Task: structure prediction
Amino acid sequence: MKFTDFNLSDTIQQAISDAGFKEPSPVQKEAIPLILEGSDIIAQAQTGTGKTAAFGLPMLSQMKADGSVEGLVIVPTRELAMQVSDELYRFGKLSGLRTATVYGGTPYGKQIERIKQASVVIATPGRLQDLLMSKKIKIDPKFVVLDEADEMLDMGFLDEIKNIFTFLPKERQTLMFSATMPKAIRKLAQEILNDPKTVAITKAESTNTDIRQLYYVVNDRERDDALVRLIDFKNPSKAIVFCRMKMEVDRLISHLTSQGFKVGGLHGDMEQKQREISIRGFKNGAVDIFVATDVAARGLDVNDVSHVFNYHIPFDSESYVHRIGRTGRAGKSGEAITLVSPNELRTIKRIEKDVGTQMATEVIPTKQELIKNKESDLLMEIAQTTITNDAIEMVKTLQHDLDIVTIAHLLASMVTQNNTVSGKDKIGFGLEEIKRLIERMHQNRGSDRNRSGNRRRHNNSGYRGDKNRSNRRKSNSGHRGKRD
Ligand code: ADP
Ligand code: MG
Result:
């Protein structure tokens, strides 16, 4: 199937080919015809599967560009608003369609001016509600999109969203997109959608299956060393390191910087300007390790992220899915690596079950292994280097005083000078130890169930050691609030 099989306008078809899109992704194949025939839809697909174009193309294709706001896209964060706006602008500009972004933390005036000239408004719930309630704007969109609906509910935007809909026309086409479909989402869908068609892209069909999922078992105090060793070993072209708390983000940024990596990051306390600079740095390659909390990284669309590192295992399976979806985007392959302490093994098992995948467990390479690894990379690199005239001249000069073997030794020493590996030799648990830990966990679970029923099911974020089990639920929700 090709994009030209869809009944999209000529200018939109032109924009698609300008963007270099060859083939529609699975969610696009299913959603685009339904949207073109006028149905409301509720679509579930993992991140990175092309949902923006799935709603954007058919929506833009039907717009008149008559100066009124014809489409409204509601998204969870400012970053996402900007991203979606860029993508929609790119597809709509040949059709004369302008976009306006609306989010908090910036002056009203300019936003309101831009809305007056826009065909599509991309907004976060808070600011949009403000503008509508204070009657600063009045819009009458034919298309309304909720993008990343699960994230918005997670962030506590349910009331805002419901309120926003009271200001929108009854005659409209509503499109809801979400990576996951918890009950709250289905309930909201019932309220705001009209006889919706469901689009569900299962993992097997999604373009996003090429993420290798691994976990390493380490003691808590080994996390920093493990992270550095693994970054060194995996040599990611671009990596995101996920943390639970902003304090951790700051600490890891300085730790990884001190280890010589090019590091940036994001958390909720940053100024908007700072956030934009930070994201741009990651996108354009000035930074190749990006440290962030879940909330800060929501919807972040950066191409070519080769690795996602979970410094801590996330609180729930949904966050896990969102995090690993930052890699393996647009059909590329990626690796998702999670560090877990022995106490967190059962969280891994639960996530495996929820997500329906098996993660592989591996052992962190020792210092010696890593050095060997780097050496063979270097040998390969040397073998593949082309000899330059300057080099030939330099060797001639050196040969006045030195024999050829000495020269070779000197040059090799120079090349290997930075081939050092820090930290202790062995980090984390070996395969046998991990196997035993898992066996013990299964045994414990058996006896635990007899004693305490299914208490564990509600308490299984694994954030705290078992000793604090009875306090766990309370303290988890406390951390949740401070997560960003
Ligand atoms: P999602 O919203 O599902 O997380 P996005 O809409 O952000 O995914 O798309 C992820 C990336 O894939 C974007 O960079 C987008 O430009 C690209 N993309 C989307 N559809 C296609 C396609 N059919 N062919 C090639 N690239 C695509
Ligand atoms: Mg998206």
In short: The first strand starts at residue 41 and ends at 44. The chain has three domains: 3-205, 207-364, 368-416. Residues 431-452 form the longest helix (22 residues). Confidence is low (pLDDT under 50) at residues 447-484.
